[in-house]
Amino acid sequence: MAGAAAGGFISRAFESMLKECSGKKYPALHKSIQTYLDSTKEVDQHSAFSETNQAASLTAYGSSSETDAGIAKNEIEANNSRAHTGEGVERVGRPVGTSGTITAALAHAGHTLEGAEVELVLNPLRLAIETKNLKVLEPALDCLHKLIAYEHLEGDPGLDGGTNAPLFTDILNMVCSCVDNSSSDSTILQVLQVLLTAVASTKFRGTVYG
Fold first, then answer.
1. Tens digits of per-residue pLDDT, 60-100?
2. pLDDT tier, 173 (very low <50, low <70, confident <90, very high otherwise)
3. Which of 7, 71, 95, 197 is deepest in the core (most CB within 10 A)?
4. 26 in the Ramachandran plot: left (φ > 0), alpha (ψ -120 to 50) or beta?
5. H helices then E strands: how many in the chain?
6. Distance CA 200, CA 177 (A)
7. Alpha carbon of 17 to those of 111, 113, 124, 188, 200: distances in Å?
8. Half-sphere exposure (CA, 13 Å, Cβ side) for 30?
9. How far is CA 206 from CA 141, 169, 194, in A?
10. Quick one: 203 exposed, middle or buried, by C-beta within 10 A (0-12, 13-18, 19+)?
């Protein structure tokens, strides 16, 4: 299963939250969302630039081959053979290491965010939950639920010294704190979805969270 169009659910949730952060409302949340969106745009622009370069390189390569009249037929056949086998062909596209980017990790369910990527995604969600404003709270809960359900997050909340333990323990405790006597049914349902999905996830090892 594709990661909801390479994390499109995150961008949609964040863009919805931005509408509620207009003006001077929730400046920290606005900044953290914009940082995430800018980082994904940079990746998309780099990919588009690489694809354009690759197309231009192949076009130029083909044109120069056609001008070599003396060896035209043999050269074209040799080039086609190399292109088919991958031998001698320069790959201009995606650079080594982009598999670690957020876009690549979110492209398919089960690909885990790592290191700074986790903080970049979770920081806006944490700030949104703190507002207690339903217009940003509920998209944040839905986004967190999907991140866990699609197995993009891995950690040991509740376990001392576990992977990402403080970060995940903190945000899940915040999720629990969303529910009080005034909570709407939709908020309660979303909180239960997040917690039950975390309990059922094979990538979350630990206790939940009181």
1. 445 544 444 444 455 545 555 554 544 443 333 333 333 34
2. very high
3. 7
4. left
5. 8, 0
6. 20
7. 25, 22, 9, 20, 28
8. 10
9. 20, 9, 15
10. middle
Alpha carbon 113 to its chain centroid, in Å, reads: 7
Q: Where are the domains of the chain?
A: 1-45+96-209
Identify which of 132, 140, 144 has the alpha carbon closest to the alpha carbon of residue 179: 132
Whether the CB-CB separation of 126 and 141 falls below 8 Å is answered with no
What does the DSSP assignment read for 89-105? PPP-SSPTTGGGSHHHH
What is the widest separation between alpha-carbon atoms in the chain?
A: 85
Q: How far apart are CA 10 and CA 147, in angstroms?
A: 9
Q: For the residues 136-156, what does the mean pLDDT come to?
A: 94
For 8, the token pair is 């499109």
CA atoms within 13 A on the CB side of 100: 7
Chain length of the chain: 210
